Amino acid sequence: MTTTPTRGLTPVLDTGRTMLGPALRDAVNSHLGPEMSRIAHYHFGWADAEGRPTGTWGGKMLRPTLALLSARAAGATDAEGLPAALAVELVHNFSLLHDDIMDADETRRGRATAWTVFGVPSAILAGDAMVTAATSVLLAAPAAGATSATVSLMTATQRMIDGQTSDVEFERRDDVTLGECLRMAGDKTGALLGCACALGAELVGAERSLIEGLDAFGAHIGLAFQLADDLLGIWGDPDRSGKQVGADLRVRKKSLPVVAALNSPGADELRALYLGPEPMTERTVQRVTELVERAGGRDWAQDEAARQIAAAEQRITATGTPDDVLGELLEVAGFIVGRQL
Amino acid sequence: MTTTPTRGLTPVLDTGRTMLGPALRDAVNSHLGPEMSRIAHYHFGWADAEGRPTGTWGGKMLRPTLALLSARAAGATDAEGLPAALAVELVHNFSLLHDDIMDADETRRGRATAWTVFGVPSAILAGDAMVTAATSVLLAAPAAGATSATVSLMTATQRMIDGQTSDVEFERRDDVTLGECLRMAGDKTGALLGCACALGAELVGAERSLIEGLDAFGAHIGLAFQLADDLLGIWGDPDRSGKQVGADLRVRKKSLPVVAALNSPGADELRALYLGPEPMTERTVQRVTELVERAGGRDWAQDEAARQIAAAEQRITATGTPDDVLGELLEVAGFIVGRQL
């Protein structure tokens, strides 16, 4: 997961964040040592680099809100689903801390990344502390499905790591297929989002069919998000303050629309420009943008996002989730993919 | 954990390694993706950088052998204790992969470290994949104590991370007390070794008193090991191929004998040389070595190691562990601390 469109939160996200922020802080304080807590408080946006409170709850809490809704889809309370919500947010932020180091990203959410403030060793350790705490929080839950939920969370985490690995590996390869690229996005983005949508239900001991339906819903939403994010990384969006036009092309990223175009018939000029050794000038970025569009990369990505959203809706509807919870799940999913569902 | 004295393995370690090597490889292959597996095979010493088998089983498998013995101390078989053994070795190697990056160490066990071969991003991810797999392996065990053992392993992992954090933090501080330094060593080295000595027993559902006795035994052995390792880092040992004389002093490491000496009365010259801004010449290293010894740092560390070993023996004897298993636990512990127990 990289950027998410920044704009006003929806009602359910607003409520979720208010409830989840303090609970997450309590979990961090009780599971991490003082030094690791300090880095976590900074990373989550609760404190500045000197440890002074910022007075805000930081991130949008998309995944933990989905985890709470999945517990409600299984007829449980938010309190019962809470450990799942906290665990999934800890795993997500473990990945952000390590991703920022791997990508040498210096800013996140408009603030200096943790490794630039505290150094690489401390930021590696803070990520390690978070993934360790995620397991502890989940296993401490007095719930029927604590062990089973932890197994699922670790499976999703392992897939997320595999996806990140493939992403790193693809940078060095010129023959990445669209199938490989979709699998990578499913691992890197879809697995944890699917897990977030199912983990609360699994924790409270829901039936396997509901857990699977919720997981599939989230996985499709994750892929739709990745496609939308990749489109923004090329064409941008004036309504959003996220990615700049051409950002992904400048670094020759093998994003989904680009890989779709590279594998189309007649992509010789695109392949030469994008995979060749010449510097990526602004003029080349413009030409590549045109060529990706002409080769059908943009249309394919938009259509594929629509297909993923349709599949998500079909899977969630089939679960028989009560209308009020269904509406809230669709509200959050719509926020993630940047359109109303 | 840094270096361990290299010399011939004891009989129980030799047997342990032959059994554990293939089982660990199977766990790696089934829980890690192909790319992460490749790095793990290299890191464990099973393959070279191109993936060609080396024909050896790599490390000494100290911790997993202890975990198997702890299952036997609880009356269970090696097969029943195996998931605990694999999980603890995965956590240990997760920490090695990340430590080598943090310390910028270029060699381990006489080979290039993983990050120098595969790059920092891949080595971070490989560590992440191992700690995630550790939880999965343990929770998949068909055993009464799988959940409880996983909670204990995560608690020990969190303490190991805290210890590592303190170690990094101490480098920047001139006022580290001996108490802080002992606590750091207990977290960094003692926690996981204590866990290794108890995890097999916990996994098979042993009584709490046995688990606690085994854990305390391992924690004391861990501290004795750290003290022995710190002594080697200053005075070396011609019989061992591990650390070089003065290695820790050259990098101004706040090891236990040094901190003991720094906090002794009349350590003004030592403090000025060790905490001051002047370059650490070979002549200064020699003078610091003398001053640490004169201030009682060497004697204190030797006495403290003996006290920790005595405490370990007292705790393990009190558990009522059968003589044959007791003998093997003491054999491995003796190997770790570099003397016969």
From TrEMBL, chains A, B:
Where are the coiled-coil regions?
none
Query: What CDD domains would the database entry show?
Result: Trans_IPPS_HT
One Pfam family name is: polyprenyl_synt
Q: Which keywords, in A-to-Z order, does the entry hold?
A: Magnesium, Metal-binding, Transferase
Q: Which InterPro entries match?
A: Isoprenoid_synthase_dom_sf, Polyprenyl_synt, Polyprenyl_synt_CS
Family to which the UniProt record says this protein belongs: Belongs to the FPP/GGPP synthase family.
What's the name of the protein?
A: Polyprenyl synthetase family protein
Q: Which organism is it from?
A: Streptomyces mutomycini
